[in-house]
Amino acid sequence: MSQSVRRTSRERLQGAGLDLALPYLLLAPSVLIVLGVLVYPLWDGLRASTKLYRYGTVLRDVGFQNYLHLWSDQQFRNALWVTIRFVTFSVAIETVLGFALALFCLHEFRGIRLLRTALIVPMVITPVVVGIVFRLIYASDVGMITTLSEALGGSQVQILGNPMKAFIGIVVLDVWEWTPLMFLILLAGLQSLPQEPFEAARVDGAGAWRSFVDLTLPMMRPVLAIAIILRTIDAFGTFDQVFVLTHGGPGQATTLVSLYGYDTSFKFQQVGYAAALFVTIGLIVLAFALAAVRLLRRVEPI
Amino acid sequence: MTGMEHLKRTVSRRALLQGSAGLAVGTSLLGGLGAETPAKADSKKVVIGAFADGGLTPFKQKILPLAKADGFDIQFLEDEYGVTLEKWFADAQSGAGQYDLYLLDDPWVPQFGAAKVLEDLGAAGIDGTDPDWISSMIDMGYWPPRQGPRVKGFETATPTLICVPFVGDLQTLTYRNDVYTNGSPVTWDDVITQGKAGVAAGKIKYPVVFRGVSGNPIVTSWYPVFLSYGGKFFDDKWNVTFNSAAGKASAEFFVGTMKQNAPKGVVEFDSDQEGAAILGGDAGAVIEYSGNALKADDPTQTKVAGKLDFGIVPKKVSAISQMGIFIAGIPKSAPNKANSIAFLKWYTSKEIQAKLSEAGSIPVKRSAFLIPDPGNRLIPVALKQLDAGCLPRPRTPDWAKVEELLGIQLNKALQAGSGGGAALDTAATQVTAYLTQAGYYN
After folding, report:
1. What is the mean pLDDT of chain A?
2. Residues of chain B contacting residue A18, judged by C-beta atoms under 8 Å apart
3. According to a count of CB atoms within 10 Å of the terminal CB, is the N or C end of chain A lower?
4. Angstroms from A239 CA to nearest CA on chain B
5. Torsion of Cα atoms, A213 then A215 then A221 then A224, to 10°
6. pLDDT at B21 > cutoff 70
7. DSSP secondary structure string, A168-215?
8. Is residue B71 exposed (0-12), middle (13-18) or buried (19+ Cβ within 10 Å)?
9. Closest residue in chain A to residue B267, using alpha carbons only
């Protein structure tokens, strides 16, 4: 009896289209969350970027005026230039170092597992903590470098008070923290390469360098491209460490667009202008990513 | 049985839906259990937001327990200075009601005032006309300001009391009494000359220390020098006047002479390094707010306890310092508004202000400065400084941007060790352009 009742109920539910609706019902929470935390804020940000805010409230619509004003804003142009230099140097050094470390750690030897684990530690430390630690290293009064220099008979080392050195300082910090990510991605890529071409090359008498140039590099190109794209997008958004370490100084030597946008929005309360700034940066990063993906597609498979 | 069939049997649709419903109900119940316990019916709950600063230590240590004893249930929520403005402004604007009372930094009053998000405290029964207030401090609680230029849109508005002074912080001079043996140095020349003698005698490493970091820190350090040279920041129509001859002379002195007599890395110094230099015994003198000065007699916090004295700031033509008080405002969205007003009335009463002074904090009422036994040697000096001259920063919601533009140029000149006057000219051009675009001169 109960079985027949259950069957009837099941049939009724099927009749009501539950089978068809269930996948959508299951997806609904995720879709709602994405709409709420991603799509809506993005849309709201785009709307805000076309408005003039004063004292926290909208005064009027200004169309694309905020976007146009960006390019005559010396502080924005400076921040963009600093960011581009920062991203270029950081990502380039991280790629070379990460690749070198990945090649080294590809070999199996005693202690390799421990070494691989140790190499990824910087990446898991909270960025703010990294900023504080580097402040303790760079500070000219009691910093580790100055202490070391004075112990060796030298004088105080000025890093954070010198524009060029402070810029190098934030690049070094970023390289220290994020080379492990490149290392990890590239090591995974290297480990997944087929071994047959290398064995064939060895049989043909190719040396290590020739194998690297003619086989490893071409085969790793897609992985390298993905790693560089990911890291570049991430580096454009660098904020915490620089906020803690230099807060953009000295002068504007380390003012990244993220810092300038943050100050513009929260400190100076120019919400519309800051929204236009971040949309512009988003578009620049998107253009870079699309260009990189296009380039990647042109690469002929080995 | 295939894996899929097994899965189908194990997780049927009915089970999944039942499980989801159970989870939802369970979550709701747990949420209910975890809900905040209501405050005791007889205590008056007040949620205070503050930024971390040594100037609030006596209040936290001595006054909060008194408030509790007098029936207030205070939740004191502290944050880093850098994040409080954005947090509270968002709270006030969205009407989230996370706080009952903000302890603002006084330059933020125009921002909150112009956004019209704070309660009218005068209408709520707080008497702004009480002659016991330090007049320059209570002035800062009004928006638009009772004196001086007003920003566009508020030219004819009636000044409203939206904040009340909470801790009367201001810059004074802290100096080493074994270096400046004739008492507080009166002029900048005294500071440098006697400081150099102290360095030669091996008592200190450098005559002065200050904050050189770009933005607010360097402007805060330069400001009393600028005022002492007779500088004026804006005229009555918001025209930039800080690059006057007096202003330029102050900037040249600041980035030249003062830098030469400060620690080598002063360009990167902020309040932590500045405090370490004076409390660690390396610097001869510093102009600072009360945060570090309050530590001057505590041997656990300074290597030179007993050797630090306080005086009014040195002068060129006058001895004027910068005022930077903690000032309390109640957001319109405060959930416990009546309690907050009751708390402010209690806190600003003559009796509690006297207790604050006994606790070692700079009060906001004149009577509390005059009690027989203030808890800190700094308090009578602060009153002397108030009487000698102490000015707030220009009262505009755009001060943060103005300070940023000026701070960048001053910091660049400080790096170079010269060019203070030219830095002010550049900053003046940038500030004028910014204010023009913001509609100040239309």
Report:
1. 90
2. 13
3. N
4. 14
5. -70
6. no
7. HHHHHHHHHHHHHHHHHHHHHHHHTS-SHHHHHHHHTT--HHHHIIII
8. middle
9. A161
Indicate if B288 and B225 belong to the same structural domain.
yes
| DSSP run (H or E) holding B223 | helix B216-228
If you write DSSP's letter for every residue of B263-304 in order, what string do you get? -TTGGG--HHHHHHHHHTT-EEEEEE-HHHHTTTT-TTT-TT
Task: Indicate which CATH number applies to the domain containing B380.
Answer: 3.40.190.10
* Residues of chain B neighbouring A265 (CB-CB closer than 8 A): 86
ipTM of model over 0.90 = no
Does residue A28 belong to any structural domain of this protein? yes
Question: Between chains, do B86 and A266 touch, taking CB under 8 Å as contact?
Answer: yes
pLDDT, residue A9, reads 61
Tell me which residue range forms the domain holding A14.
2-48
Question: What is the torsional sign of CA B310, B311, B316, B318?
Answer: positive
Gap between the terminal Cα atoms of chain A: 66
Residues A97 and A15 in one domain: no
The minimal CB distance from A251 to the residues B85, B277, B411 is found for B411
- Domains held by chain B: number: 2
- Which residues of A fall within a CB distance of 8 Å from B209? none
Contact B308, B122 (CB under 8 A): no
Query: Are the Cβ atoms of A156 and B265 closer than 8 angstroms?
Result: yes
Our CA angle for B37, B41, B42, nearest 5°, is 135
Find all residues with CB under 8 Å of A103, minimum gap 6, and list them: A190, A212, A216
Return the pLDDT at A10: 61
> Is pLDDT of B42 > 80?
no
Pair (B255, B191) in one structural domain: yes
8-state DSSP, B38: P
- Helix, strand or coil for residue A115? helix
Q: Do residue A34 and residue A109 come from a single domain? A: no
**A7 pLDDT above the threshold of 60:** no
Who contacts A66 (Cβ-Cβ below 8 Å, separation ≥6)? A49, A50, A52, A272, A273, A275, A276
Inside any domain, residue A119: yes
- Find the range with the poorest average confidence among A289-293, B20-24, B118-122, B257-261: B20-24
Residue where the block lists tokens 């080995």 = A302
Contact A125, A177 (CB under 8 A): yes
Q: A286 and A172, same structural domain?
A: yes
Residues A78 and A107 placed together within one structural domain of the fold? yes
Record: contact A141-B276, CB cut-off 8 A: yes
**How many Å apart are CA B378 and CA B171, to the nearest integer?**
11
Alpha-carbon separation of residue A284 from A178, A255, A280 (angstroms): 22, 18, 6
Look up the domain containing B161 and give its range. Answer: 44-169+324-391
Q: What average pLDDT score do residues A265-294 get?
A: 92
If asked whether residues A160 and A78 sit together in one domain, one would say: yes
Q: Which helix (H) or strand (E) holds B174?
A: strand B172-176
pLDDT tens figures, B343-359: 999 999 999 999 999 99
pLDDT at residue B331, rounded to an integer = 97
CB contact (8 A) between residue B115 and residue A57 = yes
Cβ neighbourhood burial of A237 (10 Å; 0-12, 13-18, 19+): middle
Q: Are B46 and B75 in contact (CB under 8 A)?
A: yes
DSSP-derived 3-state class of residue A217: helix
Burial A111-139 (b: 16+ CB within 10 A, else e): eeeeebeebeebbeeebeebbebbbebbb
Structure tokens given for B243: 């690059």
Tokens coding A27: 């997806």
Strands B44-51, B101-105: pairing is parallel
Mean pLDDT of A195-200: 92
**A214/B330 Cα distance (integer angstroms):** 70
Does one domain contain both B273 and B413?
A: yes
What percent of chain B is modeled with pLDDT above 90?
81
